[in-house]
Specification:
Elements: E1 8-10, H1 18-27, E2 33-37, H2 51-60, E3 65-69
Parallel strand pairs: 1-2, 2-3
């Protein structure tokens, strides 16, 4: 893992795609909190994560709580 001790990360208002989130979760086995901007509040209109992508992450990584920031 790239960051084996990372347990929380805040990516609100960062350009992050579904693929990037998938890699992040694969490389951070101790991650328990992921903070993202609400889709409507995100500054990036392209390359951003999707609702389907987040739903898949929730399904495949139930230990990770996703918190949305306005």
């Amino acid at each position: 893992p790239a960051a084996p001790m990372l347990s929380e990360v805040n990516l609100a208002y960062c350009m992050v795609s579904d693929a990037a989130l998938t890699v992040l979760l694969r490389k951070t086995p101790r991650l328990v909190l992921l903070e993202l901007a609400e889709p409507a509040a995100n500054l990036w209109t392209t390359g951003a994560y999707t609702e389907n992508g987040v739903s898949e992450l929730i399904r495949s990584h139930p230990r990770v709580r996703i918190k949305f920031t306005v």
